[in-house]
Structures are given as C-alpha cells and as structure tokens.
Amino acid sequence: MQSHLGKGVLFALCAAALNATIGVLSKVLMSSGFSSSSIALIKTVVGCLLLSVLLLFLKRPLRTAKWFQAAACAFLGIFVLFHFETSAYRHYAAAGVVVILMASASISSILLGRIVLKDAITANATVGAGLTIAGIAVIFGADLEQGFTLQGALLASIAGCGYGAFSVVMKRMGVSGGLHFTRQLLFFGSLYLLMPAATDGFIMGELSLVAVMALLALAALPTILGFFCTTKAIEHLKPSQVQALELTEPLFAALLAFAFLNELPRDTLYLGAGLILCGLCFSNELIRLGKKASLPSRA
C-alpha cells in the first residue's frame, strides 16, 4: 500500500511540474504569432507522432487496444480541458482561469469519485482540497478581479470539471496508463481539437528555431510525459488525491517563470505555498482527521 502511495504521489507531482511548462512555452509561441487553439492542436498532433516513432524504436508489445476508453477519456481530458480553457482566456484574466479551473477539477473529482467510484468524502479530503485551493487563490489573489466575467468563469469551470471527470472515468474503466494508452489519448485528442482550430482559423506563427523548439518541448513535456504521469498516478491513487497533488502546478510554474522569464515571485507565493503544502498533508493523510480513512476503491 505504501509503495503504491509513493509511486502515485511521485507521478502526480511530476505531472504537475511538467504541466507547469505550458505557460512559459505557450507565451513564446504566442509572441511568434500562433493562436491558442492552433498551439493546442499542434502540440497534440506532434506529441502523437513523436510517441508513435518512439514506440517503434522501443518495440514494446502492444497491449489490447482500448479505443472506446481512450476516446471517452480524451474527450474529457484533452478536448474539454484544452478547448474550454482556451475559450476562458478570451474572457477572463489568466490568473482567474487557473484558480477556477484547478478548484473545479479538485471539487469535481471528489464529488464524482463519491458518485461513480463510491469513494468516501472524508474530512481529510475536504480540508485538504479547501486549503490547497485557498493557497492557489492567495498566490493569484491580486489578479483575480482583473477582467472578471461570468462567461470566463463558467468556461474555466467547465474545463476543470472535464479534467476532474477524466481522472474518475479512467479509474472507473480500469484503464492502465502507459505509453500506448497515452498515444491513443493524443490520437483522439488531435481529432477533437481539429474542430475548434478550424473554427478559429488555423493561425500559424513564424517557424523560427525558437518556435520549433518550443513546440517540440510542449509536445514532449506536458503533452506526452504530462499525460503519461497523470494516467500512471491514477493507477495508484484516488482521483481526488491526484487532482489535489496536481494543484502544486502554480508553485512549479512560479519557479519556471523565475528561472526562464526572470519574473520575481510575489510575497503571496510563500503564504500560498504553505497553504498548498499543508493541504497536501491532509489530502494524503500525513495529517489525519478523525478515524482512519477507507482504502481507495478498486472499482
């Protein structure tokens, strides 16, 4: 049990760190003239192609294809997340979108986990989610009211609920994560993302060396490795635990922004980081409230 918990925590934290690169790399591409919907499509298509080539060289035995499961999970975890998140950025400031998206992902995974997986909603999970969401709100507090619109908040909520549902549905279907399943996710995700890219107009920016490197990094880091780590984390943890651990993404994003964009973190980062880490201690029962929580559902 402890081995499964340790592996799940490691995979979820790696996913958060990898996903934190999206902001920095996307800024590079947007400054080169790429539209957000085009970036989402290109990184998914390139990720699928790179992974296909890698699997050819690795010569790993192909497991039984789970196309229906991959199609359902890709719709929630790639299309709903990417499309509605991108749409939310048009109506609300980035900081507000991040907070609402992550909060809704965490809350939806807890509620859907109870309904679909029969996971108990424990005091630990509730307090942990509350503290972690509060930590993110503190980090972005100064920017939350900038450009607020109800439409933007609603779109961000839909994106977050899609991501929360993705982890629950994957757990319910009993799908094993891995490189082959990640490729199937990216394949269906590419098909889904063709629709918003075509609607917005496929806008390609300047293909400079920097832009090409940023696209390859987006395809390899948050797209291939990010989804691989998330799917592996779901194998070992409850969806609510995975979502809680991935709420550390703003901390990794702040470190990357400081390292590569020379953006100094605000003082609120430290208080927010403390709340997030405290919340994770509750979510993963390092600090326990009440009686011992039940084991994760194997449904």
TrEMBL record:
Answer yes or no on keyword Glycoprotein.
no
- Assigned GO CC terms: membrane
Alphabetical list of SUPFAM superfamilies matching this protein? Multidrug resistance efflux transporter EmrE
The EamA domain, residue ranges: 7-140, 152-283
Top-level taxon in the UniProt lineage: Bacteria
The answer to whether UniProt assigns keyword Membrane to this entry is yes
Q: Name one Pfam family in it.
A: EamA
Keyword annotations from UniProtKB, A to Z: Membrane, Transmembrane, Transmembrane helix
Membrane-crossing ranges are 39-58, 65-84, 90-113, 120-142, 148-169, 181-203, 209-230
Q: What is this protein called?
A: Permease
| Source species | Pseudomonas putida (Arthrobacter siderocapsulatus)
Q: What is the lineage of its organism?
A: Bacteria, Pseudomonadati, Pseudomonadota, Gammaproteobacteria, Pseudomonadales
